[in-house]
Amino acid sequence: MELLPRRPAEFGSARYWDRFFRQRGQRPFEWYGAFPELCPVLHKYVRPRDKVLVVGCGNSELSEQMYDVGMCEDIVNIDISDAVIRQMQERSGSKRPKMSYLLMDMLQMDFPDAHFQVVLDKGTLDAVLTDEEEATLAKVDKMFAEISRVLQVGGRYFCVSLAQAHVLKKAVEYFSQEGWVVRVHQVASSGDKQQFVLPVFVYVMTKFRKIPGSASQILEICPEEQDKPMRVESTERLVAAVKDRQHYALLCSQLSKTPCGEQVSLDLCDKENGRPRYTLHVVDSPSVKPSRDNRFAIFIIPQGRETEWLFGTEEGRRQLAASAGFGRLVTVALHREQHYEGMAGIQAELSGKVMELAPPGLPARQQVPFLSVGGDIGVRTVRHRATSPLSGEYVVEDVKGDGTCYFRRLIFLRNRNVVQSEARLLAPTPPPGQKKRRKDKKKPSPAEPPAAIDRSYLCCEHHKAMVAGLCLLGGPDPLPGALLAVLVVGLGGGSLPLFVHDYFSQARVAVAEIDPSMLEVATRWFGFSQGDRMRVHVSDGLDYVAKLAAEAPAQYDAIMFDVDSKDLTVGMSCPPPAFVEKPFLQKVKTILKPEGVFVLNLVCRDTRLKESVLATLREVFPLLYTRRIEGEVNEILFCQPSPEGRQDPAELGARARALEGALRQPGRPWDSSYVLADMLQAVKIL
Question: Which regions are flagged for Basic residues bias (predicted)?
C-alpha cells in the first residue's frame, strides 16, 4: 500500500504525513481503538471541565466524538502535518467552537507548564517508537518530558497503544521512575476481529510529585472484563501480563478461522489472586460430520479426575471428543485451590469466555451445551497439604471416582497432573446392630482421621504388573508362603510394599525412602505401618544399595524400583538417571540372588534415552522381559541375572494362574479385576 512508509523513520517526518493525508483525502483514519471501544475507559478519567491536549491528532474523529457526546469541549489538537491541520480546521470549524487544531511539534510545544489536565495520545507513541535505536529513544524521552511539563500534578497521560513489548516497557519505566502511577487497561473490542485481531490497550499514567529517595512504584493492569485493577510488582510482570492477553487474542482469532490440527491448551486465571482456575483444552474432531447442533460443546471434567487417561492425555481427549460427537470440544479441568458453585455457577462463569474459542461458522446465538460425567462437577477434599524439602509442595486429597468409589491420592504439585500414589477408601460400615444414619450424617471434615484404606486394592496398573512379576521366582515352595526377602526402593503411599507384605505371608520387606515426609504421609494417610516383616530405611536408595552390596551380597529374592525423579528437565521421570547407570545396576545385581528378579518401573518419553537404558540393562542382566502399561507411558522391566531362567509366555501364564489361586485365600479380600495372568499376557522378552 502506497500510504505506508518505506522506512520506520518516516513516521516522524512532517513531509510523509502531509503526503499521507493528501492521498487519503477527507476519510478519517483510525489506527485502532474506535470511540465506542475507548469511551468506557475515557469516561473514567476525563471530566467535562478538563483541558485536554491531543498529540498527533491526524484526522481521527476521536476528539470530535468526545466533544459531540459532551465528554469535554476544551480540547486542543496538535499535529506536525500542515495538510491535516487545515483539513481538520475546515471539518470542525464553526461546529465545535471551543475545540482548536494547531500546527505544532509535540517535541517542542509552545504551551506553558502545567497547562492541561489530560494529554491524549492515540497511536502516536507507537508511530514514534518504531525501534530501539539511540536516536529514537532520545526522541521518545523528549516527547515524554514535554508531556510531563504541560501536565498538571494529578493530570493523566492517556496513551492508546497496541502495547508492543518495547513500547510498553519504555513508557512504564520512564513514568514509574518519575513517581507516576501507571495503570494499563485492555479495551473491550467491538470491531471486526477478522480484520484486526490484536487487542488495544490504554496506558493511563497519572502524574504525582516525585518523592526524592523513594523507589516505590505503583503498576496495575485492568483486563477488559473487570473494573478492579490488579497490582503487579514489576515492569517485567506487567509486560508479561499484556503479552499473555495478546497471545490469547491471536489464539482466539486463529481458532475462529480454521480447525486446530493440534490440541490447544490454556489456563484461565482467578481475577482476585491470578492463580489458574480452569485449564482448557480445545479438541477438534475432523471425523465428525458438522451439523447445526453438533459443532461445539464444553465438557467439565469432574474434580479429581483430570489425571485419568480419558481426560489427562491427548489421545484420551481425542477419543472423548469423537465419542461425544462434536466437531469441537473444549474440556475444562478444575483446580484444587479454587472453590466452585456447582455446574450452574461454572456455566455462568465460563459461557462468555468459551464462546471466544468457538469454531468457524458457529451461528452468533447458537446455544452451546455444557457436558459432564453424571451431570455434576465431582468431589475433591484436600486432607493434607505440606511442603517437603526434597519433594516440594504436595497434597493428600480424597476424590470421587467413577461410580460410588472414593480414592485417596498423593500429588506432588510440581507435577500436578501426575498421581504419585493412590489408594481406594473403604465405605464406612456401622457397628453390628446399628442402623445407618443417612440424611443427618455429618460429612467428615479434612481434619478428621483418615478413612480406612482398602489394602487389597492396587490402584496403579504398574503396581499390579510389578507384583505379577514375582511369578518369575522359582523354588519348590508355594510362593505366597515362601520365605522371601524383598527390597522396595521408593515408598510413596506404601501400597506396593503393603500388598507384598499382606499377601505373601512369609515375605520380609525392606523399603528405602529418601524423603522422611513420605514415611509420615504413608503412615498417617495411607494406612502404612511397620512391623517385624516390614521396615523402612530413610536413606537415598543409591547409598542404601551400595552399602548392601559392600556388606551382604545375594540376599534379596526380589528388588523393586518405583522411585520418581525430582529433575523434570530430563525426559525420564522414573527412575532418576543415576539408578540405571551401569555401575549402580551391577550393585543391584550383586545383592540379588542368582534366581531372583529385579523389577523396574520405567517412565521415559525420550526414545533415545530409553534405548540407552534398555541397552545398559541388557549388559548387566542377560534375561530381560518388558510389559507396557496400556494407555500410560509406564513400562515394567523384569530383569534376571541368569539366562537359564527364561520362560515362554505360556509358562508365565500358568505360573501366574497358580500364584493367583494361592493368593486368593478364603476370608481374604481380593480385587476381582486383578488377574495376574492378564498382567503377564503382553510380556515380551528383549
Answer: 434-444
